Give the backbone structure.
Amino acid sequence: MKKILLLFSFTILFFSCKKQNSDPYTLPDAYSNQALGTSAHDLLSADKYTTLNIQVQYMPGYQLDPAAITNVTNYLSAICNKPGGINITQTQITGSGDTLNPSKVAALEKQNRTAYNSGSTISLYILVSDGYDTSVSTLGFSYRCTSICLFGKDIFDHSGGTGEMSRVNLETSVLEHELGHILGLVNLGSPMQTAHQDVSHGNHCANTKCLMYYAIELHVGLGLFSTVPLLDTNCSNDLHANGGK
Ligand SMILES: [Zn+2]
Ligand SMILES: [Zn+2]
């Protein structure tokens, strides 16, 4: 909950600082500075954008596993109407070797991101860091309408061991959960067709088996699942109603 409030106040900070050239966070593209959930319909439907481009930038040692990339491509292909295709590219950036918080992540994004919307192509940005979250409880988070951060070292350190998910499955789970927020879940840009928001945990699903259950992105959720959770019927219905497949 605190995390959610922090992210919201962070979003407000963006808007309040938008016109200052010296701002370390404001992206050069006005569209990408909008609040989380704003792009849901544009990503789900083919009304404005027919192709989805995803730029992944990872710090040394934390490149996403190719199998996770395949999983995420299949997940988005099953949800989003993008007849022009869904393309994910990965490049390495300089490591931070540091703990990170939303402000630092946003500054890194501004410094490194090069993919923005162009013509009928909409772009997302994913940073995979070699640092932990300062709260040491979050495996990843989404912020702004097209931006995600995964804590690559944290995911690496908490997968593949006895009783833990495989690295591929944990990467896939956290990434697909964050993409769910970007797509407007829950009640964050894709209106609920049936009430299913876990209001005590922000924009999450009340179904403990659903991909959008709040614990999926947190340390408290580690060990709850052995396979990648799926979106339940309520979450799927919200995406469909907002232009998705
Ligand atoms: Zn979440
Ligand atoms: Zn759900």
User: Anything to note?
Assistant: Residues 177, 181, 204, 214, 217 surround zinc ion (ligand 1) (CB under 6 Å).
